[in-house]
Amino acid sequence: MIAENTNKGINVTIQTIVVPDLGGAETVEVIELGLNPGDSIEVEDALLVLESDKATMDIPSPAAGALVKYLVAEGATVRVGDAIAEIDVADEATAETEAEPEEVEQVTNEPLVEAAVATEQAQEQAPQVAAASSAEQMILVPDIGSDDKVELIEVCIAVGDEVNEGDTLIVLESDKATMDVPSTHSGKVLEIVVAEGAKLGTGDAVALFEVAGDAPAPVVAKPVTDKPVADKPVAPAAAPVAAPIEAAADAIQSAPGQPAQPAAVAAAEPALSSDAAQVYAGPAVRLIARELGVALTEVSGTGPRGRILKDDVSNYVKQVIKNKDAPAAAATGGSGIPVVPAVDFSQFGQIEELPMSKIQKLTAANMQRNWLNVPHVTQFDDADITDLEAFRKGLKAEGEKRGVRVTPVAFLIKAIGAALEANPEFNRSLAADGQNLIQKHYCHVGMAVDTPRGLVVPVIRDVNEKGIWDISAEISLLAGKARDGKLKPAEMQGGCFTLSSLGAIGGNGFTPIVNAPEVGILGVSKSQMKPVWDGAEFVPRLLLPMALSYDHRAINGGDAGRFMTHLVKLLSDIRYLAL
Q1: How far is CA 309 from CA 195, 230, 394, in A?
Q2: β-bridge pairing 520-524 and 497-501
């Protein structure tokens, strides 16, 4: 649509820009508006960025002028032909101002016509490509059970390798587990598009394979025009430079509604790192980050699906400047507690420095955070499991028929589920604001598993609805996955309460640390035969030492006493578990 207006001898044309042909996509999402009203724009400059299920695409301007306004907002869904923006086209040349609307429309659509011609040429050449006997296949990360990015810690293939379907391509490591990513196709490795240390998620590209089969679909050539296309901005690599960030922060604070002025940068352009190439951000955001000296790998995105927005970059710069004024945090390790002084142990004898695995590092950080933030109280008691053990051993023959081994842990988890139902105070979490409690109406119990890679806690769901056989089978399955590093993130999430058992190792007792945001954890040590007074004489009974740690912000002593008493009752007489 074109509207004309005359002002002081200059013809002003208001041109409405619509969504061009998207190559088959029915609807797409507007994920980035790259300009402000009044900004000048040239032909082929990006107006906005759209995203379909498969790709992100810049929508170029078909005319030069100034942006009047956007007709859509970020997050809107549009389709081919929808109006997206209005542009003022000012021209003092009489010949051009007298042009007919049909002529203007013809000029406006030249890039689309050229694109169509290029597409037809590519399709005419397609039969020549179809004669090939092999195809290129991009291998993607399968569903890893989480929307979060995980770290690539090992690449198991090399360019030129022949790979069979099911062979391990890469190894990923999340907060709690290490997982192998198998190949979904057999073929030859043409290119590896990731590097160790990169952050990957479901659907991210891993490697390009040459696979046997039909030829690939013809690749449509890019339209060729007489106008040069501006280079896309390159994201900065490694850490940002302090001076550009400080200058950028001043610009952001002085004019929050305007784009920051470019800070002084080195003449040489920074190289594109593998991590920076994978960040979820549009060209305009990458350009701003480049001008401000910000590494996008350090910025958390708040847009749809974690996309980094302009405001995210601005807020990151402000936070960097704010943190610069807090040097005391370094002396306290960031927790407000003085750090342990470094010691040169080599002066006392021969030493060896062993790197911690990622799981060990995360466990250490989680334990410290939980210990510092949760006011712990631990209560102790013994459960008489003499009859329980006799019953469990009597299930051995039946277990061999079922292919299931019943351990004391199965009875403990079943009893914990019943105790949580009877004492819902332990099936809660503190809300983030600290002013409310979240009552959970499901019953999932985590069990700590010691593995060569470190401590992990898989979760058994709905234990209150399962029997001993089902729980035993699930314990065996999850423990095996944990030891092999095959646990998925989803299998370690959603716990209401945690069991930590050292019964197979030994010890008389210990104080377990609450696994926040849970409010309770049960620690179990090795059972022992001890003399117990039955009212007439001392008799030998098998006693199980238990330690219940709880968050005193959510649980008081009376709640803990009732929970522990109920648990001891269930374990001492397993008939109560059937009620």
Answers
A1: 25, 22, 62
A2: parallel
Active-site residue list: 552
Distance CA 388, CA 568 (A): 12
- Could you tell me the two tokens for 18? 């619509």
pLDDT value at 329 more than 80: no
Distance CA 369, CA 520 (A): 16
CATH code for the part of the protein at 134-211:
2.40.50.100
Q: Give the DSSP per-residue string, 321-369.
A: HHHHT-THHHHTTTTTSPPPPP--GGGTS-----PPPHHHHHHHHHHHH
Helix (H) or strand (E) holding 207: strand 205-212
Question: How far is Cα 552 from Cα 575, in angstroms, rounded to an integer?
Answer: 32
pTM exceeds 0.90? no
Q: Are 13 and 100 in contact (CB under 8 A)?
A: no
CA nearest 569: which of 538, 546, 537? Answer: 546
pLDDT digits (tens, 9 = 90+) for 197-244: 888 888 888 899 888 754 444 433 334 344 444 444 444 443 444 445
Q: What confidence score (pLDDT) does residue 254 get?
A: 44
Confidence of residue 558 (pLDDT cuts 50, 70, 90): very high
Using 50, 70 and 90 to split pLDDT, how confident is the model at 91? low
C-alpha torsion angle, residues 367, 372, 374, 378 (rounded to 10): 70
What is the full DSSP assignment across 204-246?
Answer: -EEEEEEEESSPPPPPPPPPP-SSPPPPPP-PPPSSPPHHHHH
- Residue 34 CA to its chain's centroid (Å): 26
Q: Is 162 helix (H, G, I), strand (E, B) or coil?
A: strand
Q: In this structure, what token pair is assigned to residue 391?
A: 């019953």
Half-sphere exposure of 564 (CA within 13 A, CB side): 25
| Homologous superfamily of the 242-328 domain (CATH) | E3-binding domain (4.10.320.10)
Confidence of residue 351 (pLDDT cuts 50, 70, 90): very high
- pLDDT tens, position by position, 497-517: 999 999 888 888 999 999 999
- Say if residues 77 and 28 touch (Cβ distance below 8 Å): yes
CATH, domain 358-578, list 3.20.20.140, 3.30.559.10, 2.160.10.10, 2.102.10.10: 3.30.559.10
Residues in the chain: 579
Q: What is the mean pLDDT of the chain?
A: 79
Which residue from 321, 323, 326, 327 is spatially nearest to 244, judged by alpha carbons? 321
Q: Tens digits of per-residue pLDDT, 235-261?
A: 444 344 444 555 555 544 444 444 444
The CB density around residue 514, as the number of other CB atoms within 10 Å, is: 25
Angle among Cα 448, 450, 451 to the nearest 5 degrees reads: 130
Measured CA distances, 330 to 240, 323, 333, 423 (Å) = 19, 11, 5, 43
Q: Is the pLDDT of residue 409 over 60?
A: yes
Distance (Å, rounded) from C-alpha 455 to C-alpha 107?
66
Which is nearest to 241 in space by CA: 313, 317, 311? Answer: 317
**What architecture does CATH give domain 2-122?**
Beta Barrel (2.40)
